[in-house]
Specification:
eight-stranded parallel beta sheet, 4 helices, 29% helix
């Protein structure tokens, strides 16, 4: 149909000798030396009150969306922005899938949807949710509410109020915060500080953790250094003196009971580990094994002492038995002598 219109207009203008430009439905037709030239305005957006200023940019639909940089895309929604909107059009390939008031301003950044989400760094991504921000290079917020991924290659899996500000870190759950520690994993449960203990740590804040299988603690000699001798008897003495009680965690039901020492008492007694708020399984096992060795050594010493006492008693008993045998022999000889003397006196 459009080709037919172009041809009809061209014939009419050619017949009348008129060569002025004519615009039909956004298509400009000009003539130069009886040659028709057409320049069509790109179909760069649909919807209402949308604006595209970048090269090869596109808005599929929606209302009041804005693509400001090259190769940017907004599929739909309302009030979304793809690009930095600083006049340079250089923050390219930004994408917003939809939703409301979302911003994808970094190179190759993307916001899938949701509301008031921002992906401001290069290769950053927000999947959806509300009020989330991915501001670190190659950072990701999958969804949820009020989450921040500001570290390089950091990730917030979802939830509420989580912060992954360390590089290559992960946070999820509720109000989990890696405190800027790199290579840190933090899961925020229902209670607790919900923070990272340090760089390259795995932190889970939950009242209970169920592991359905074996847990392997590394104990390879090749991974250790600074070896020193341990006095098993000294460890045993400290275990004997260390308070041990039954208790429950404040987050547990009144019917639950546990048994064990307090981390503060354990640290004061042994000084193992780096926190007086935790007892590592490695240190607890090590103390228990050393105490067992100390108890065994003490029993061996006691048994040795008892064996020496028994040997001495057996020797003493042997001496007494020998003396008793000698006395009994003398007594028998004396009795025989008395009998003979009595018999001799009766005869006389």
């Amino acid at each position: 149909m459009r080709s037919t219109v172009f041809l009809a207009v061209a014939l009419c203008l050619a017949a009348t000798g008129t060569y002025a430009g004519v615009t039909i439905n956004g298509t400009t037709i000009t003539f130069d030396d009886n040659t028709m030239q057409t320049t069509a305005k790109p179909s760069d957006h649909g919807g209402t009150s949308n604006s595209v200023s970048g090269v090869n940019a596109f808005i599929g639909g929606g209302y009041s969306n804005l693509v400001t940089d090259n190769f940017g895309t907004i599929s739909g929604g309302q009030g979304n922005v793809a690009g930095l909107d600083d006049g340079s059009t250089q923050n390219s390939w930004a994408t917003v899938g939809g939703g409301e008031n979302n911003f994808a301003s970094g190179d190759w950044s993307a916001v899938g949807g949701g509301r008031v989400n921002t992906a401001s760094a290069s290769r950053s991504t927000v999947g959806g949710g509300e009020g989330n921000m991915a501001s670190g290079p190659a950072s990701t917020v999958s969804g949820g509410n009020s989450n921040i991924a500001s570290g390089g290659h950091s990730t917030v899996g979802g939830g509420f109020g989580n912060t992954a500000s360390g590089d290559f870190s992960f946070a999820a759950g509720t109000n989990a915060d890696d405190l800027g520690n790199n290579n840190s994993f933090v899961w925020g449960g229902a209670a607790g500080a919900r923070t990272s203990a340090g760089v390259d740590t795995f932190n889970v804040w939950s009242s209970e953790i169920y592991l359905n299988g074996s847990v392997y603690n590394s104990s390879d000699r090749n991974m250790k250094e600074a070896f020193s001798f341990v006095s098993a008897r000294a460890v045993l003495d400290k275990v004997v003196e260390m308070p041990v009680s039954t208790w429950r965690f404040k987050t547990e039901d009144d019917s639950v009971r546990h048994i064990g020492p307090m981390a503060q008492d354990f640290m004061e007694a042994f000084g193992y580990g780096k926190s007086d708020k935790h007892i590592t399984a490695t240190d607890a096992d090590g103390v228990a094994l050393a105490a067992i060795q100390g108890l065994y050594a003490m029993q061996r010493e006691e048994l040795q002492e008892q064996a020496e006492v028994n040997t001495a008693l057996r020797w003493h008993n042997a001496q007494l038995n020998s003396r008793n045998d000698s006395l009994e022999a003398r007594l028998r000889r004396l009795e025989r002598a008395i009998l003979r003397e009595g018999e001799s006196s009766g005869t006389d």
